[in-house]
Design goal:
With about 150 residues, this protein is an alpha+beta fold. Helices cover about 25% and strands about 25% of the residues. The chain has 3 helices and 7 strands, in the order E-H-E-E-E-H-E-E-E-H. A hairpin with a 4-residue loop joins strand 6 and strand 7. The longest helix has 14 residues.
């Protein structure tokens, strides 16, 4: 599928981006660009950047501030393919999963919603189970999609 071949059945994918390892803004910009370049996917709108403290971060990492953003994409990719490619972008940016919850990360990409899909699978839950409780998601989301309805 060519980049410009976005089907009429395209869905709206909402992604939360975050980084707490410098250069944070460059990492977010690179991830946003990579997401936009996925086949059958185009950026609809991206929020401004939000600088904030980490949530539920181990004390030894509390001094590392996060830079967050939310972006909406139209995509004709299937949800699991979209999520797999999204995690590939994290891997390409040097994301290391240490097993320590909320440890520092070069980039963190979370699929918040995918159209009106509701899933509860071992590797994918939609809508994202903690997104509604996180101001660093809900604030930027309201900025770009003020009429967003949670599935």
């Amino acid at each position: 599928m060519e980049k410009t071949d976005i089907s009429p059945q395209a869905v709206l994918a909402v992604v939360a981006l975050g980084s707490n390892i410098e250069p944070r803004a460059a990492r977010l910009a690179s991830a946003l660009r990579a997401l936009s370049e996925m086949p059958g996917t185009r950026l609809v709108r991206a929020s401004s950047l939000l600088d904030n403290v980490g949530v539920d971060v181990p004390p030894e990492f509390a001094h590392l501030r996060f830079l967050n953003q939310v972006a909406a994409f139209e995509t004709s990719l299937e949800v699991h393919d979209f999520a797999r490619r999204m995690h590939g972008i994290e891997d390409a940016q040097g994301r290391v999963r240490t097993g320590v919850r909320n440890a520092p990360r070069t980039i963190d990409l979370d699929l918040i919603a995918f159209g009106d899909l509701v899933l509860d699978e071992p590797d994918l839950t939609l809508p994202h189970p903690r997104a509604r409780d996180r101001v660093f998601v809900t604030g930027p989301l309201a900025e770009i999609l003020p009429d967003f309805k949670w599935p």
